[in-house]
């Protein structure tokens, strides 16, 4: 069997959580392979709205195994809250959630370092979620990190050693008031909860599952344009959000990857700082934000909004080897008189169709305009109900990218999902 990978193709918040929940019945195992509680994945069904940060979005379906892979970073405090929230819904995760021993832990001092680093950057800050993601991955690649598998061996000693290093850094490099102890008691409570789950050699576990004909879905976090290598550096996150990240973040070989499902919004959003060529500062931008309720699931920050950007979408499709597309939130534009798609950039007056090295703020988008469909599509269940103007919008995207738009999502609920390949 293969591992199918589901990824965001923009700057995150494309609707990955919703689609993973919709697709879960088709798979035996759902896995997260990178990122941490910087992610906020929203699921809506049966009057329930739930946001997940660390736990894969397969947990609301019966008889599925969910795995937090080695590439993920875990904050025990946030993990504990997530577990408590899910328990309240009457779901017991003790038999369905497995955690890689190799996943790294976010320490209270990582969060403080994140905040200190952002404060020191001032105006040029990344706009991080302040969850300690960057400093934790720095310790991972710097070979100083603490992992889930360390919990049972001299853990306190290893913890103190790393915190001492962080204190030195904070005192030497930053002018920043901090109190590590404030968060520590909660953190060790979280470690207790984390210890109650099954810690596994996830690479072995997953490869054994594949050998036993089990199907696996890998759930991406963030988006391709936030990838540490291919995103709009330095305004990125600190992990490989692209398809290759699923190989390293789970321990599965590249030839084990099957379908690559690329998720994009019918427009674009971004939270945090960094270039965004099609960003709108006008009424249309505000309308996208209002209609789409574009406020961060993790931080509550208003999301920046703009038209769909095909230049970067094609780039993301290329990097990930996307085999099928899922278009999200087109309903947000249901009442627009006209909509636009950016097909090239003007950089210093010269038209380019590729993402330039520096995605500076000077990029001027070149647009193709489409007539709006001006139809409420939120109750539609089949593509034969789609208005002509909407079909024109999708046809254009398929023609330009060369990849089929297999699924269209017309609302946040599980049920508002239309598979175009089903009769
Ligand atoms: P993720 O991080 O990619 O999982 O996405 P988020 O959950 O952060 O953000 C997506 C938001 O859009 C959530 O509030 C979802 O409930 C909502 N959503 C998902 N799909 C649709 C859709 O097709 N239409 C509308 N209107 N909202 C959607
Ligand atoms: P999901 O999985 C949207 C953004 C932050 C910031 C940059 C770096 O819900 O799509 P970090 O805390 O990772 O160091 O922040 O990345 N960012 C996200 N934006 N959705 C996310 O996750 C994000 N995770 C991080 O806003 O600009
Ligand atoms: Mg999100």
From TrEMBL:
Binding-site positions, Mg(2+): 13, 40
Cited SMART domains: Adenylsucc_synt (SM00788)
Statement: the UniProt record of this protein carries the keyword Iron-sulfur: no
Record gene name: purA
Protein name: Adenylosuccinate synthetase
EC identifiers of the protein: 6.3.4.4
Organism: Marinifilum caeruleilacunae
Role, per record: Plays an important role in the de novo pathway of purine nucleotide biosynthesis. Catalyzes the first committed step in the biosynthesis of AMP from IMP.
GO molecular function, one term: adenylosuccinate synthase activity
